[in-house]
# Entry
Amino acid sequence: MLYELLGLAELAVWLYGIFDCARTDQDSVRRLPKWAWLLIVIIFQFPGAIAWVFIGRPKGVSRPRMRPGRIIPPDDNPEFLKQI
# Structure
């Protein structure tokens, strides 16, 4: 049971490394080009993903959260009322 959980954790870290590296802008990747980091993460799997997180990933950059803003009904929206 413990080995299965460790295997799932390794798979999750590896997939996170692949998708995070793929979504990061080319200009903000550190040390190596983006394509090289993708190859490292894919070939070396868990150690490559750990290396990406600690060495290649941009520092201090947080991803914007996909939280929708507050929805204002048209009759309470002053910008909408100015257009009428």
